[in-house]
Amino acid sequence: MSSGTVKVVTRGHGVADLNESQVADLDRMMTGSVLRHGDDGYDESRTIWNAMIDRSPAFIARCETTADVKHAVDFARKHGLLLAVRGGGHNIAGNAVCDGGMMIDLSPMNFVRVDTQSKIAQVGPGATLGDVDRQTQAHGLATPTGINSTTGIAGLTLGGGFGWLSRKYGLTADNLVGAEVVTAAGEVVEANTQDHPDLFWALRGGGGNFGIVTRFDYTLYEVGPDLLSGLVVYPLDQAKDALEKYRDIAAGLDDETSIWAVLRMAPPLPFLPETVHGKPIIAFAVFHVGDPDEGRAAIEPIRHLGTPYGEQVGVQPFSAWQQAFDPLLTPGARNYWKSHNFTELSDGAIDLLVDFAGKVPSPHCEIFVGQLGGQVNRVAPDHIAYPHRDAEFVVNVHGRWETAQEDERGVGWSRDFFNASAPHATGGVYVNFMTEEEGDRIGAAFGPNWNRLVAVKTRYDPENLFRLNQNVPPVG
User: Which segments of the chain belong to CATH 3.40.462.20?
Assistant: First the structure.
């Protein structure tokens, strides 16, 4: 690095001068590296999944070890820097990267260590869901995660995390049994039910407010490796009747079975006739974690909701099903989401789902209905920071398009559905589906656990070093 100074953005969003020699000292202390504009890897590191986010940190600390993270946190605290923390870089709000401040990039810390005796996986904060599945499924084991293999495990867990295994085994956060954390003070602590229990409670659903987790410990279950899963696809003009029947079917499912609904324009799925590609559809994604024959009986009614365009349901590796939706969620597109929790799909909510799915502004847009219930809802709302134990469905409006010229139309469509459907929803929201602009909904994301989260934040991060998130501000 050259001598002189670099201008950096501070936590108060002012601008200060930092000596280049100080940044160079940080670089020398780290096993990883510090990247500046023009360095190899800088643009790759600052580029995240949502192409609507294009920000340039003054420098990036690419961390390879817990010690690296400690050095970087100490540096940011000492110099009062605006600090962003990147795990998988998949969060819709784009909080992983900032303009002009310091970014901590955890992506090199992508280890996954599986203990088959204790059925515990130790996972690094840079790991993706695909990294976790590859290592755990090699032993016929899994922990509940999300539905897109490129998602980062860190952000998913800190916000709650749900997917195909959640009705049987709970949230990702419900299955976190320990964590190594670098606090805002630069301390490295173990957090679990015995050590730093309040911090451990807050980490499980409270987002990235309380420290940087450098190791996650998860409970594993015997899963697969081959399980029943697949899609049944109907024309959108059959969606209203199909959703009304689905509502009744979903209420009677056992914990082993999950059925989600997706309304969109048909992608070029190989089992659909080419004449269907690009037409409006409703697809039911079915999954059963137990015996495939029992699963076929459970999902059989979904095959008879109307006259399907086509279906592809069968036994396949769980890890393959975990990647099935990756082609629809590739990086590089512009994404804007709006989300609600629902205790039921009312007639009015179903009408809105069908209406808005019929006027999507881009072939990449969709509305999905994720089914919760089961074990997720048997946990008390205050057991961990994630509070939404009454939600039977999470409905996410997934606005997605390719160019900035489409922003106004796409954002407008997403917001219009959100506003129209609000009277049918609980008022709660899943924190990982919130956009950056939704600061007024943070209280709704944390609900009755807000005051306890504020107390934990005040204890562990009184200066709000970790503020680029769905922020819980400290008192004082």
Answer: 226-439
Mean pLDDT of all residues in 44-73: 97
pLDDT in tens, 268-286: 999 999 999 999 999 999 9
CATH number of 226-439: 3.40.462.20
Lay out the sheet containing 393-401: strands in order across: 310-317, 226-235, 280-288, 257-265, 366-371, 393-401, 334-342
How far CA 150 is from CA of 146, 173, 229, 454, in Å, comes to: 10, 18, 20, 31
187 Rama class: left (phi>0) / alpha (psi -120 to 50) / beta: beta
Cβ pair 46, 103 in contact under 8 A: yes
Residue 203 C-beta-side C-alpha neighbours within 13 Å: 30
Residue with tokens 């160079």: 24
Residue 455 or residue 437, greater confidence: 455
Strands 59-62 and 102-105: parallel
- The model's pTM: 0.96
| Rounded-to-integer distance, Cα 333 and Cα 343, Å | 31
CATH 3.30.43.10 domain position(s) in the chain: 5-105
CA dist., res. 22 & res. 184, Å (int): 20
Spatial strand order in the sheet of 83-86: 33-35, 59-62, 102-105, 83-86
Count of other CB atoms within 10 angstroms of residue 270: 6
Average pLDDT over residues 9-19: 92
Selected from 6.10.140.1580, 3.30.950.10, 3.30.465.10, 3.30.420.40, the CATH number assigned to the domain covering 112-222+449-460 reads 3.30.465.10
Nearest to 437, CA basis, from 403, 414, 462: 414
208 pLDDT more than 50: yes
DSSP labels, 39-90: STTHHHHH--S-TT-----SEEEE--SHHHHHHHHHHHHHTTB-EEEESSS-
Instruction: Please state, in angstroms and rounded to a whole number, the distance separating the CA atoms of residues 475 and 471.
Output: 13
Q: How confident is the model at residue 3 (pLDDT cuts 50, 70, 90)?
A: low
- What CATH code would you report for 5-105? 3.30.43.10
Burial class (CB in 10 A: 0-12, 13-18, 19+), 314: exposed
Residues 43 and 11: their CA atoms lie apart, in Å, by 23
How high is the mean pLDDT of the chain? Answer: 96
> SS3 of 464, please?
coil
Q: What separation in angstroms does the CA of 86 have from each of 35, 54, 380, 424?
A: 14, 14, 30, 35
Retrieve residue 34's tokens.
Answer: 């510090």
List CB contacts of 349: < 8 A, sequence separation 6 or more: 342, 395, 421, 424, 425
